[in-house]
Design a protein that fits this description.
The complex is a heterodimer of chains A (278) and B (185).
Chain A lengths: L2 H14 L5 H12 L3 H18 L10 H12 L5 H4 L18 H32 L5 H23 L4 E7 L8 E6 L6 E6 L7 E9 L2 E7 L8 E5 L8 E10 L13 E6 L3
Helix pairs in contact in A: 1-2, 1-3, 6-7
Chain B lengths: L3 H12 L3 H23 L2 H18 L10 H17 L2 H12 L13 H16 L2 H13 L3 H8 L3 H18 L7
Helix pairs in contact in B: 1-2, 2-3, 2-4, 3-4, 7-9, 8-9
Classes of the chains: A alpha+beta (278), B mainly alpha (185).
Chain lengths: 278, 185
Amino acid sequence: MTEDHDRYLELAAGYALGALDGEDRLLFEEHLGAGCDECEAALADYSGAAVMLAASAPAAAPSPELRARVIKAALAARPVATPLSSAVKPLRPGRPRGWIEWSPAWAAIAAAMAIVAAAGWVASGRLSKEVSALKGQLGEARDRIALLESQSVQQDYWTKVLTSPQAKVAVLARTPDAQTTLEGRAIYDPGTHAAVVILRNVFVPTGQDYQLWAIRGSTPASLGLVHPDKDGIAILRVDDAGDPASLGAFAVSLEQQGGSPNPAAPTGPVVMLGKLGG
Amino acid sequence: MSQQPLDLECMERLKSGDPRALRELYDRYTSLLYPVALRVVGNPTDAEDAVQRCWVQAWQTAGSYDPQRGPVAAWLLTMARSRALDLARSTVSRRRAEDAAEQEPQDSPPDPSDSAERRALRESITRALRELSTDQRQVLEIAYFEGLSQSEVATRLGAPLGTVKSWTRQGLERLRELLPKQEWV
């Protein structure tokens, strides 16, 4: 066993506990994603041992009333639609299933994708209700109906992109120029050329902007500026990321406010880069 | 030790929305989940809240459970720990845990559903943990029950990050050797 690979086995132990820091986690996920039976097996074993830690907690019982509260809360909660929870699975076709699926890192990514899918689902449900109500009205309401129906169709479209069986994933790794804790993934559907890019820990320095790029062959093409929410999460929906024959990677650069002065290439440093995988 | 065949039948009923399956799983596993939540959040109010959130999540997402990924018990434990860590990171929960720590220490209430089998398992795990070095045990317990990353653990213990990584691996390796796989939850 090489010293390099021993390092991955060490990361597997931290990963099983959900304790890896961002960079280590991305490194290990990329290694697993490339296919390593030894690390998959080690991770399964370490995860099993980690779960045993749970059973070491001192025995204690909740109040007897909790049982009734749980049943009441569960029955009042709306079940999550199964197609959404299974929607994430086809994004990594053929990948061995194991404990990693429940590890915090994957859970975080799955959660990010579930947020996108759930947003579409919730919005679709709400929109169709609103659409039904508005259909009974006349005049100016018709414009509103058209708008809502168009949004609903758009949400369906992006859910399809995320759940496409042909979807490819790019893990965006930080480059040495990155001064941040940025993390990200891109999901690209070769059928429609559409992509969804999810970035976390995006905190834009004053007077600057992050810009997303598609790398087609060796030529970059701007996909727009990154606008995170207050929690530093940015979800970018790209209608056309490029042809699958030429699209090889996604990148993020740190630019002056408003984006690169050169529309055809980054001017500032490239801080994240991720090659498209299977 | 494994209840997996019974659990799988229960999960099928849970997926179809049968509340009796939820009651059955609650009775079987709350005595495993609640102590973990209590250890993580440090106070009974939030521990019950975490367990409740876990069961609601199990009810809502039963359809996503895949037995190929691991046993039902581990699926539930992962959710209970995550919900407890969410709560532990909130200010209100930290305050409650501090209040609980300031009170006179009390014995945990007896758990009527704590089976002899589970007690034996806990004892064998406790024995195995004692076999680890103090450093190895600490890094595992801090990471699992407090949800700290390895760099945060290194800062807490004043140890180099590389050393924390080694202790983590050595600790889990040792646990794996000491606890036969058939005993796993």
